[in-house]
Design brief:
Helix content is 37%, strand content 24%. A hairpin with a 5-residue loop joins β3 (65-68) and β4 (74-77). It is elongated, with a radius of gyration of 28 Å. Residues 273-281 have low confidence and may be disordered. It is an alpha+beta fold and 427 residues long. The chain contains 16 helices and 18 strands. It has an eight-stranded mixed β-sheet with strand order 1-5-6-13-12-9-7-8, with helices on both faces. The structure holds histidyl-adenosine monophosphate. Histidyl-adenosine monophosphate binds next to β6, β12, β13 and α12.
Length: 427
C-alpha cells in the first residue's frame, strides 16, 4: 500500500465540518474588516524566499522544498505567504489598482520540519497583510482582527504576546549588546546558535535547545534598545490595544523566526481542548502559537517595490482546528432521505429525489431495491433529518409520508406539496 507522505495529512469527511467552520469564520471576519481575498501560486522562484523570508532563517536554511524544474529554474513550494503577497502587491501595482491594500489568502504551505502534534510538512494558513500604513493604530487593528478570529472560533485560553524588535537604525545597537552579553557563553550554545551569532544574532532567541535556555534568558531585551520613533510606535500600539480592551503581555523573546520583521511582533498562544472536557485544556506543547505576525517596513522595498511599510499575520489552520471547542461547527442535519416501496414507489421516488435537489434540498436515496427496514436504517446512519416514504398505497391517495427521524412522528403530505413542505421543514 502507498501511504501519505510523512508530515502530510488527509482531512477526512468526518473532520471537514470543523475545517469549513474555521474557514467560514476567517473569511467572514476578513471581509468584515475590509480585507480583499487574493490567491497566489503555491510555487514561486526560490530567490523570493531566500531574499524575503531571509537567508539566516531556519526556513531557508533547512526547511524549504526546492527543486530544479524541467526548464532549469529553481522553484520552491511556498513555506509562507508573506513574500508571495509582497511580490503580487508589487508586480500588479496593487496600491494603485485597489482602494486599499488590505489582503488575505488561505492555502497550503510547505516546510520540511520534524512532524509532531500541531506541526506538519504540508499545513494551511490564513494569511492577512496590510501595505502602505505605518500608524500604530493599524498594528492594533491587525491584532484586533487576530483576536476576534480566536474569540469568534470559541477558542478560550488564548494569550496575546507582543514585542518590538526595532528597525534597521536601532537594531545594530541591540545586536552589539546581545553579542557583548553573550561573551564567554557563546561557545556553550548549540551549533545552530553559533551560526546564528555570525549570520543574525537575533535568531538566537528562536533556539529551542533546553541546555541553551538559561543563557538565552539572561540576554538583553530588544525594547531597551529602541530608538525614539520605534519606542513611541510601540507605546502607541499598547495604548490602542488597551483602548480596545485586548489583554496583552510583553515577551522579550518574541523576535519571530523570519528576517523581515521591524518594530511590532506578536503571537497568540493557545491550548488544545481535550476530548469531552472543553474547559480542560491540554497544551499544544512547543507548537502553541495559533498565529503570529508583525510589521515588516523594509520588505516591499527589499523585494524590488516602492518603499512601503507592511504588517500582517498568519494563523495555522490545523492548530485552530485542534484548539476548537469539541462541538464547534456542528450543524443540525438538513438531509432528506427518500425511501421507496415497490416498483411504482421507486419510479415516483426518483422523481421526488430530483425535484428536491432542484429545489435546493440535500437529498439521497438507495439505488438498489432494498427493504423498507434496510432503507430506514440507512437514513438513520446518514443522520437524515426526515425520511420521505414513497409507496404504491400513498401514491394511490396522491400522498407521500414524511417521517421525522428524531421523533419518529409520521404524517401524510400531498404529493403536489411535498417538495415545498420538506424544504420548509429543513430550513
Ligand atoms: P509563522 O510564525 O512562521 O509566520 O507561521 C504562522 C503560523 O503558521 C504559526 O503560528 C502556526 O500556527 C502555523 N505554522 C507554522 N508552521 C507550521 C507547521 N509546520 N505546521 C503547522 N502549522 C504551522 C509566518 O508564516 C508569517 N508569514 C506570518 C506573517 C504574515 N507575518 C507577517 N505577515
Amino acid at each position: 500500500m502507498i501511504t501519505a507522505i510523512r508530515g502530510t495529512h488527509d482531512i477526512l469527511p468526518g473532520e471537514i465540518a470543523r475545517w469549513q467552520f474555521v474557514e467560514r469564520v476567517a473569511r467572514e471576519l476578513c471581509e468584515r474588516y475590509g480585507y480583499l481575498e487574493i490567491r497566489t501560486p503555491v510555487i514561486e522562484r526560490e530567490e523570493l524566499f531566500a531574499k524575503g523570508t531571509g537567508e539566516s532563517t531556519d526556513i531557508v536554511q533547512k526547511e524549504m522544498y526546492s527543486f530544479t524544474d524541467k526548464g532549469g529554474e529553481r522553484i520552491t513550494l511556498r513555506p509562507e505567504a508573506t513574500p508571495s503577497m509582497v511580490r503580487a502587491f508589487v508586480e500588479h501595482n496593487l496600491e494603485n489598482v485597489l482602494p486599499s491594500a488590505k489582503l488575505y489568502a488561505m492555502g497550503p504551505m510547505f516546510r520540511y520540519e520534524r512532524p509532531q502534534k500541531g506541526r506538519y510538512r504540508q499545513f494551511h494558513q490564513l494569511d492577512v497583510e496590510v501595505f502602505g500604513l505605518s500608524d500604530p493604530a493599524i498594528d492594533a487593528e491587525v491584532i484586533d482582527l487576530a483576536w476576534a478570529l480566536i474569540s469568534d472560533l470559541g477558542i478560550r485560553r488564548a494569550e496575546l504576546v507582543i514585542n518590538s524588535v526595532g528597525c534597521a537604525d536601532c537594531r545594530p545597537r541591540f545586536q552589539q549588546a546581545l553579542l557583548k552579553a553573550l561573551g564567554d557563553d557563546l561557545p556553550k550554545l548549540c551549533q545552530d546558535c553559533q551560526r546564528r551569532a555570525r549570520t543574525n544574532p537575533l535568531r538566537i532567541y528562536d533556539c529551542k535547545v533546553p541546555a541553551d535556555q538559561p543563557i538565552i534568558d539572561r540576554l538583553p531585551h530588544s525594547i531597551d534598545y529602541l530608538d525614539e520613533p520605534c519606542a513611541t510606535h510601540f507605546k502607541g500600539v499598547q495604548a490602542h490595544l488597551d483602548a480596545f480592551g485586548i489583554p496583552w503581555r510583553i515577551s522579550h523573546r518574541l523576535v519571530r523566526g523570519l528576517d523581515y520583521y521591524t518594530r511590532t511582533t506578536f503571537e497568540i498562544l493557545g491550548a488544545v481542548a481535550s476530548a469531552g472536557e472543553p474547559d480542560d485544556a491540554e497544551s499544544l506543547g512547543a507548537q502553541n502559537a495559533l498565529l503570529g505576525g508583525g510589521r515588516y517596513d523594509g520588505l516591499v522595498k527589499d523585494l524590488g517595490g516602492p518603499d512601503r511599510p507592511g504588517i500582517g499575520f498568519a494563523a495555522g489552520l490545523e492548530r485552530l482546528v485542534l484548539a476548537l471547542p469539541e462541538h464547534a461547527g456542528a450543524e443540525p442535519s438538513r438531509l432528506a432521505c427518500v425511501v421507496a416501496i415497490g416498483d411504482d414507489g421507486r419510479r415516483e421516488a426518483l422523481k421526488v429525489l430530483r425535484e428536491l435537489r432542484r429545489a435546493g434540498v440535500a437529498a439521497v436515496m438507495e439505488f438498489e431495491a432494498r427493504s423498507l427496514r434496510a432503507q430506514m436504517k440507512r437514513a438513520d446512519r446518514l443522520s437524515a433529518r426526515v425520511a420521505v416514504i414513497v409507496g404504491g398505497d400513498e401514491l394511490a391517495r396522491g400522498e407521500v409520508t414524511l417521517r421525522d427521524m428524531a421523533t419518529g412522528d409520521q404524517r401524510p403530505v400531498a404529493r403536489s406539496e411535498a417538495v415545498d413542505v420538506i424544504r420548509t421543514a429543513l430550513t
